[in-house]
Amino acid sequence: MRIVMIGAGYVGLVSAACFADFGHDVTCVDKDCEKIAALNQYRIPIFEPDLDKLVESGVNSGRLRFGVDLSDIGEADAVFIAVGTPSRRGDGHADLSYVHAAAREIAGLLEGFTLIVTKSTVPVGTGDEVERIIKETNPEADFAVVANPEFLREGAAIRDFQHPDRIVVGTDDERAKKVMGQIYRPLYLNQAPILYTSRRTAELIKYAANAFLATKITFINEIADLAERVGANVQDVARGIGLDNRIGAKFLHAGPGYGGSCFPKDTRALSKTALDYGVQLRVVEATLTVNEIRKRTMSRKVSGALDNDIRGKTIAVLGLTFKPDTDDMREAPSIALIAGLLDFGAKVRAHDPVGMEQAKKELSDIEFCDDPYACARGADALVIVTEWRQFRALDLERIRTDMATPVIVDLRNIYRPEDVRSAGFRYESIGRA
Ligand code: UDX
What we know:
With 433 residues, this protein is α/β, with parallel strands linked by helices. It has helices spanning 10-22, 33-40, 51-61, 97-107, 126-137, 157-162, 174-183, 199-230, 234-242, 263-276, 282-305, 333-343, 356-362, 372-376, 396-402, 417-422; strands at residues 2-6, 25-29, 64-67, 78-81, 114-118, 143-147, 167-170, 194-197, 314-318, 347-351, 367-368, 381-384, 407-410, 426-429. The strands form three sheets. A six-stranded parallel sheet has the order 3-2-1-4-5-6, with helices on both faces. Helix 11 crosses helix 12 (333-343). Belongs to the UDP-glucose/GDP-mannose dehydrogenase family.
């Protein structure tokens, strides 16, 4: 199949590289000339494990190329739209201007039957609008618009693409179903089910999935707060409920609140779309509010571990990105935490294994350290915010000797309380009394 991928951002780049790896012929197009020049020299603008190798082998095989113009669209069987849909300033709706602009540009270049596939996360009804724009711009065009949302997790995106739980294809067009079946044929080997639905249903599946996962995390976070008060252990509660197949064990890790490029943005957009249709999604709205409050209150937890005497104290923060194996700082819990600590008059130092460059753009008035031990030296409390593997087996003896006061606040529960306490620390974690 010949594929044009519009957008060399997170989703576009991973999808383009994986489709080329499946054996398809892929042109990945982006307006950002510098990004395209870098990609042509195998320099990847994001941190994603193994993406560099996949891009390099795709380019070397001749099946993957990067460019700034859309001239390959005439030959394409499918044009994927994977441009950004950020939260619109002010109202929380998804900003669809890049999607609409792409539709307009594609329209005049279509030759023969072509699929236009939305891969970006787009509100229900966007496929209809893309179809309208293309028809209006080029009434002669022979095309079908398909919704094909992605469910990739940052840090595990390639594995998720190659071994998806399911592929969702939203279209009623039989020709389109056939082409999509051929595009995803390599995944039959991995027995990934393809779920064919209407276009609007596919668009809603994506938002419902993200809102459900965000709600699941938020639920266990609230149970963690209660566990702390009543003297229970939230990890055992999660295990105890997760073994019920109806609930499932995943996404029940209590922590400092969810962040990232998807959950916050998509839950906001879903509740806004719902209101446009006269439906109030109270559960989703509660998830949004509870999570925002949670991220802000984490600084109080740290302050509590220092008996609320935090002014002028030095706090060492380990992990800044919203989760491990990414350099992404979008809506990371570390941002609200550090803002709160600075408001309390604390001095903040931080270290992240991969995200320091991105973090420097987001965070000011803090000191950045090259490794966890330099960060801990002389500090009054050490706060683990992102569960990078590098932090799971720290030399506690060395840290205790180097710190001004031996206090660890573990917002990801990566240590066993008895181990840290017996190493001589005051230790606070999440939902474990
Ligand atoms: C998410 C969805 O998982 C993915 O399907 C969708 O396509 C994009 O959004 P991503 O944002 O990359 O992926 O990360 P994910 O691993 O889902 O984590 C999101 C946030 O939830 C992180 O801040 C993470 O720390 C937090 N989280 C996740 C928890 O606090 N507890 C959990 O149990 C799981």
